[in-house]
Every structure is written in C-alpha cells, then in structure tokens.
C-alpha cells in the first residue's frame, strides 16, 4: 500500500514524503535564464509589497453568478459578494482544527479514554473499509 493512501500514515509522514520528493528534484540547471539573473539587494520602488502578492481569499470574484444556489423560481440569480462582506470566521472553516496536546492529558483521565476510544473506532472503520474484500 502506498504511503499516501495508507490510512494509518500520519499527516507528518505524508508531508515529509511529499516535501522530500519535491526537494529531491534539485536546483535548476546553471544554463537556465532564471539562474543567470542576480538578485538585487536594493528594493525597487515599483516592486509589489507582500500584501499585493497575497492571492484573493475567495475562489470567485465579486459579481460572479453562483449557479445551483438559487433553487426558488422567479428569484434573481445569486451573486458572489466582495470578500469584505463575508464574516471573518468563514475563511477559517477550511483550516484544520487544532488538537489538544497529548502530553497535557493525564494517563487514565476521561480525556485520554475518549481519545483512545475515538482512535480505536477509526482504526476499526479503516480496517473494515480497506480490509480483504
């Protein structure tokens, strides 16, 4: 079973595998055009700031018709709003949840029992899902 599809492989191991493969490619060839350029030490007045280089938060620009959201007849189409009109918590939904530190949990406590029960359930689900068919 591949490391990337193995349900028991931790996220850390998968990311380490990905980045090790990415870095194994190595630097660009010496003859390429980008390698011949020398970085300038002085900041250019026309260079964009870091804020300008950030990608937009939403995946569609304001005013885009969002198809599939308007299910009532006779209503105007649903349009995307500017990013500033949406609440701030909306953009945090895609971030992974922060887990409590395992070292802070005392052995035999209720929190540890819940964590072990949750992990064992997930192992059983994975075993049933990926087991022999």
UniProtKB/TrEMBL annotation:
Signal peptide: none annotated. Residues 119-133 have a biased composition (Basic and acidic residues). GO terms for cellular component: mitochondrial large ribosomal subunit. Residues 27-57, 101-133 are annotated as: Disordered. It comes from the Eukaryota. One of its GO terms (molecular function) is structural constituent of ribosome. It holds the Pfam family Ribosomal_L37. Keywords: Mitochondrion, Ribonucleoprotein, Ribosomal protein, Transit peptide. It is found in: Mitochondrion. PANTHER family: 39S RIBOSOMAL PROTEIN L54, MITOCHONDRIAL (PTHR28595), LARGE RIBOSOMAL SUBUNIT PROTEIN ML54 (PTHR28595:SF1). Belongs to the mitochondrion-specific ribosomal protein mL54 family. This is Large ribosomal subunit protein mL54. It comes from Pisolithus tinctorius Marx 270.
